[in-house]
Structure formats: C-alpha cells, structure tokens
C-alpha cells in the first residue's frame, strides 16, 4: 500500500449534476488531488463522445467508459470491447419492431433513433426530478445528453452499449429473454420504476475495468477509491478498497458504500476528498 491513491469517479451525479453542470468545488478537488500525486480517472456509463469539453478540460489520468467496455489510461487505450455489428443490427431491429426509441453509445457519438429527442424528454425530466433537480420539468433532451447525433447510420460496428426507452418493465424482461448473449440492465430508477433499458457486452462491468486500469497503471487494488451514486457503481465499490456514495445516491448504492458524502452540488466531491485526505 502506498500514499498515492487511484480514484475512480462516476460522472453523472458525482462529478456533474444531472443538468450536466460541474461545480467549481468538484473541479478544484480533482485538480488538487492530482497535484498531490493521486491518479483520478472517470468511471462512467458514458462513452467518450458524451464528455463535453468542460469535463475533459478538468484533467484526468484516464477514462473507463460504457460501464466498463472502454479503458483508457494516460491517453493509451488498454481495453475496448464492442457490441458486434450483428448484435447491433439485432438490437436496432428489435427496438424498431417494438416501437422503442433508443440510442447507440459509441466513442464517435450517440446515434439516436428517429424520434428519440421527443420520446426521451419526459423520461429524462422524470429521471432528473427523482435526483432532486429543481428545474427538471423544463429540461430538454439536449440539456441532459451531450453528443447526440440524429439521422446517423444505426447499423454500426463501433458501439459500446445501447440504451432504449422502456414502454414498460416487460420490455426489459423480454430483452433478457431475447438477448442471452448480451448483458442487459436498466437505469433511471430502482426495479420496476426503471426508465431505460440497456444492452452491452456480456461479462463487462466497472469492476473488471477498474482492475484492468489499475494493472495498466502499475498500481495496487489496495490503493483504490471508488465514488458513485447508482446501482451500476456497486461492482466498482466492491472491487475498490474504499467506496463513497454521493448524497443523491439510491438506497442500494448508499448501503454498499463505506460512507456517504453530500450531494454533488453541495460540494460532495470536495467533502469526500477532504475526508479521505486526498486534498
């Protein structure tokens, strides 16, 4: 074990608010921790194209994207697991047949289905409202999601994962049945209140990606810290030596973490870094 830590940060609700705003205290915490010799990496469901310039410009030592499908350390890609072109075609056709709007998450962009902007608006407002966003009812799809491309090719070979709007929880259950070769999950809420389904590469999660990144850094898992706010972060919590849940986190994530800090917009990142003596 060393004094230098490797810190893995979820993005939405951890570094940024759910309206994509980055508190100054979060920027300062990340930059101060790196100046103190710690490594700080994003570990997010986002693909690289979803990161706006103001997020990238904070400065990071690497990125885990697509909930573990993509691992980049010190500007070097050390792992990238894609959905196959055939799987992508099947997913697109399945969603179209069911009338479900979706987007393909690639490092080259978020390629959305024909009516995604309109269909996603109420879902994203509900999602933001559940997370305590004050002006959630006024949010537009493009306020919440960066890098969305409309009218692009939907049969692709560069996809990390796919998210689709649930018309009911049955869509998720049917996806599990129809895509046994995929990792199928939900997000936007707990259990049957989920708003979106997603499909990605089987046997991929944030925990596996964290181990790949730590090995690439030549570091030790005993020196790792994970911070997040959602159920998808729990494997990362379990893999890392220390885990922190944000104040806006769901019940399961809070229960799985070593401690709970304040909300992202209430200096949650800064307070956690101070608690852990990273700054």
Structure description:
The chain folds into 2 domains: 6-81 and 205-275, HAD superfamily/HAD-like (Rossmann fold), CATH 3.40.50; 85-201, Hypothetical Protein, Haloacid Dehalogenase-like Hydrolase, Chain: A, domain 2. It is 33% helix and 23% strand. β4 (70-73) and β5 form a beta hairpin. The protein is α/β, with parallel strands linked by helices and 279 residues long. 49% of the residues are buried. α1 (24-35) packs parallel to α10 (268-275). The protein is globular, with a radius of gyration of 18 Å. The strands form 2 sheets. The protein has an 8-stranded mixed sheet with strand order 5-4-3-2-1-12-13-14. A 6-stranded mixed sheet has the order 8-7-6-9-11-10. It starts with 5 loop residues before the first strand and ends with a helix.
Observed structural traits:
alpha/beta; Rossmann fold; Hypothetical Protein, Haloacid Dehalogenase-like Hydrolase, Chain: A, domain 2; 2 domains; 8-stranded mixed β-sheet; 6-stranded mixed β-sheet; 10 helices
């Amino acid at each position: 074990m060393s004094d230098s830590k490797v810190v893995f940060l979820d993005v939405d609700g951890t570094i940024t608010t759910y309206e994509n705003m980055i508190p100054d205290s979060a920027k300062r915490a990340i930059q101060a921790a790196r100046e103190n010799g710690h490594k700080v990496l994003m570990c997010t469901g986002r693909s690289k194209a979803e990161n706006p310039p103001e997020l990238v410009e904070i400065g990071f030592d690497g990125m885990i994207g697509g909930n573990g499908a993509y691992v980049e350390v010190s500007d070097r890609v050390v792992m990238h697991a894609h959905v196959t072109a055939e799987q992508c075609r099947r997913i697109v056709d399945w969603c179209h047949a069911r009338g479900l709007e979706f987007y393909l998450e690639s490092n080259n962009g978020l390629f959305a289905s024909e009516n995604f902007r309109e269909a996603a608006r109420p879902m994203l407002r509900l999602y933001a409202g559940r997370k305590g966003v004050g002006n959630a009812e006024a949010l537009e799809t493009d306020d919440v999601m960066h890098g969305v491309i409309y009218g692009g090719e939907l049969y692709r070979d560069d996809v990390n994962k796919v998210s689709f709007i649930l018309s009911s929880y049955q869509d998720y259950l049917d996806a599990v049945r129809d895509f046994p070769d995929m990792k199928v999950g939900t997000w936007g809420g707990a259990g049957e209140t989920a708003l979106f389904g997603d499909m990605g590469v089987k046997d991929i999660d944030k925990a596996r990606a964290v181990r790949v990144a730590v090995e690439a850094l030549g570091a030790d898992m005993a020196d790792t810290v994970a911070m997040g706010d959602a159920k998808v972060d729990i494997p990362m919590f379990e893999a890392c030596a220390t885990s922190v849940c944000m104040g806006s986190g769901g019940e399961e994530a809070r229960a799985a973490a070593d401690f709970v800090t304040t909300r992202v917009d209430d200096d949650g990142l800064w307070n956690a870094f101070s608690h852990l003596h990273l700054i």
